[in-house]
Design a protein that fits this description.
Distance between the termini: 34 Å
Low-confidence stretches: none
Number of helices: 15
Number of domains: 2
CATH architecture of the largest domain: 2-Layer Sandwich
Strand content: 15-25%
Radius of gyration: 24 Å
Bound molecules: 6-O-phosphono-beta-D-glucopyranose
Helix content: 25-40%
Shape: globular
Largest sheet: 10 strands, mixed
CATH superfamily of the largest domain: Dihydrodipicolinate Reductase, domain 2
Length: 487
Amino acid sequence: MQTDSSFTFVLFGGTGDLSMRKILPALFEAHRAGGMLADSGKIVAVARHAADRGEYLQWVNEHVKPHVSKNGVDEAAWASFLERIEFVKIDLGNPEDFTLLRDAVKDLPGIRVFYLATGPSLFVPICRALASVGLNENARIVLEKPLGYDLKSSNAINDAVGEIFAEEQIYRIDHYLGKEPVQNLLALRFGNALFEPLWRREWVESIQITIAEELGVEARGDFYDNTGALRDMVQNHLLQLLSIVAMEPPHSMDSDSVRDEKLRVLRALKPINQLDIGKVAVRGQYHSGVIRGNAVPAYATEPGVKQNSTTETFVALKVEIENWRWAGVPFFLRTGKRLADRVAEIVVNFRSVPHSALGASALRAGANRLVIRLQPNETIRLYCLAKQPGEGMNLASVHLDLAFDQFFREGQMEAYQRLLLDVINGRLALFVRRDEQEAAWRWVEPILNEWKASNKPPKPYASGTWGPAAASAMLAQHGTCWLEEEN
Ligand code: BG6
């Protein structure tokens, strides 16, 4: 991919955790790969915690370098990467400081990208300060999640940012959309005529989407305790995955065609009402336990977490989509921290044969199933029934495996690398449009409100398990169970 689009990439929160772990390493990878970033492109880091460029580069050397290139750093590439970096010391609380930024970027070439790797409370003040020195014109702005806390606060941010930047200048990040396997879902569904005819209520019994993590809240207890799994993972990542799995084929891959179809799914989600919530939503919180042989503490004792916190670290939901393609097909979503495994996958359970001429074993569960594993190892596994060798007609479940790394050994890109290149090149398809975000909040909010009003604590689960038993019971009512097997 050769590019001549020059750019000035202004990174607010230049010494923050996200810049250190994700953004600067992703920019370095793009730089190292060659041909992805225009030679004249510049990175302008904005922060308070460094005195000048020299001190900032020292910080980059100490803190960012350990996060780049797992297989060792290419020193020549690293040195030339540092040459791209400029630094401006700004106190974000002081809008007058933005004249320093204006002066620093005025002679730099190309499209301007402002990446707000800061807390959401700073989004609006930064946008206003940028506008006050005329830097919003013809620029792109990147907003990190969480974008708001509920529909109202997210609307307030979007309204205020929208007064300064037009929608097509705004890039709302959901890093799941940048993951290679998530992109591959589009290829699987819309590049293969084989699957599409089956991808509907007539042939699909249920669908599961799981994002399970082994990690706890790490150093983010403070933030997480005010957020919880529903806001942190469901409102964005899980609903985005669901919309890609369930959407109608777009007429092209241009950004609005794809986003229009995703939006239709989000708007067709059956609202969860107060009476049903106990049947279709499970919330849990991890207690102490053992993960891969190591004892881990309970959520309530993590730093930054309030005593007796009722924040959920696990959510399981039964979701329905009210349209012709999916009416009556349950979608089971689940996410949690400190679970038994780190895995993100989509399981499509197809219906059994309508009549079994081969005996009861042809109706067994576990066959007629497609498992799309997004991480850790991207694979697609198709379960079918086959005759067991020998006498008689006994069927057993077997599977066909497609491991992507056997086909594509090179060219893998981290989510952030893809998304940053898309911003620089003006491609909006993998960013969340305002109406999608609103629809997701609108659907999630009654659940949040009901959980708050009911004041019931989340169900406990031991770390290293698959969450509260109620999550399994919810599926058992539909004659199914979560797929929990080693790949
Ligand atoms: C983030 C959440 O958006 O996604 C984190 O805030 C979570 O809590 C992370 O750990 C998971 O992302 P990934 O790419 O590691 O699956």
